[in-house]
Structures are given as structure tokens and as C-alpha cells.
Amino acid sequence: MAHPSQENAVYLPDAAEHDVTVKYYGKASHAAAYPWEGVNALDAAVLAYNNLSVLRQQMKPTWRVHVKELPVLTKKAEDCFRAAALATGCTVEIKGGAHDYYNVLPNKSLWKAYMENGKKLGIEFISEDVMLNSPSGSTDFGNVTFVVPGIHPYFYIGSNALNHTEQYTEAAGAHEAQFYTLRTAKALAMTALDVIFKPELLESIREDFRLQLQEEEFLNTVE
């Protein structure tokens, strides 16, 4: 799956994600006459924000990426929320999302094949060092890459506008963007043909996939 961007990259570090909804419940009181009778839910929310800000200093870089470390970060974040409730006397309700996003596992053999085909079509890719230091967002395609090998390249559409803005929406609909989009589609199609007609590439992709799952400590129940 390819995604439009400001540059051409065979992948970017798409992060794992776990959504949490936090509600604090306090108690109203007269602010001038009996403020000590109140329990301020807003104070709890402010403290939770500050707690998370402090937690950021203790976060490993990989905690923004790997799904296997998501439970560790989730617990630390929930501890921040509960600590704010404890300090203010509020009660807190924490509800986690039902569907986590896994990080994307870019299959190395597959993205190398895509890069070769892209270069044949005139695509100029940013270096791997730049890619590794250019984290992106989160996507449910990451969950797919834990079941079957996949890649999630990004492609330039002729505009330096930022994604998910009105300016980028306008740029994506421009005639110039269609050339870049079709070129990327061709590179993906050429890569799919390589997988079909080159058994050695397919075996290399499978081996990369097995090693990635081992690194993520993930059991693929489909294979």
C-alpha cells in the first residue's frame, strides 16, 4: 500500500498505537465560600498532562514504534492518569480502544525489489538513514504486515504542502499528482510481477518475514 507524501520513501517508521479514553470525576462546590469541599477534575486532567510530559523523557525511541512494547508504555501512561486522580481526590475511568494498530513491518526483500522497479521509472528515493529518522503516523495496514509480508511506501505528488491539510487535498487532485500516482502504481505492479515470476525473491521475502516476526516476538497463526 502506498501513501502520498512530500518525498519518495520505500517505507517510514509507522508506529503502533493504542487509543485510551480517560474521564475524571470530581465534586462541585462554591469556589469562594467552600473551595475545600470541591474535587477539581480539571486539576486532575492538568496533572495527567504534566505526568505524561515527564514520562516522555523516560520513553525509549522504540516505544513509539514496536507493538511488542506497547503494553509497557500503556501501563506507564495509565499510571500517570491514576496518579493524577490520587493527587486530586478524583475518581478516574480509563477505557482502552478495542482495536490496536500494529507497527508496519516493511519487508526488506520486498521494498528492495520495489526500489529497483521505482528507479527504473525515474523515482528518486530518500536514503534509509533519512527514512529511519522520519517517523510517520499509524495505520491498520500494520496489522496486515503481521499476517502477510508487505510494504508501505510513500510517494511525492509534486507538492510540498503538508499531509491532511486543505492545501494537500487540492494538490492531490491536481493533474500533476496523477502522473506521480500512476508511476508509483506501476512500480508496485512491477514488484508484484517479480514476486510471481521470481521464486528466489519470494523465498527471500518469506525468510525476511519469519525473522521479523521472531524479532517482534509475534506468533503468526496463519502461516
TrEMBL record:
It comes from the Eukaryota. GO terms for molecular function: dipeptidase activity. InterPro entries: Bact_exopeptidase_dim_dom (IPR036264), Peptidase_M20/M20A_hydrolases (IPR052030). This is Xaa-Arg dipeptidase isoform X2. It comes from Trichechus manatus latirostris (Florida manatee). The lineage of its organism: Eukaryota, Metazoa, Chordata, Craniata, Vertebrata. The gene is PM20D2.
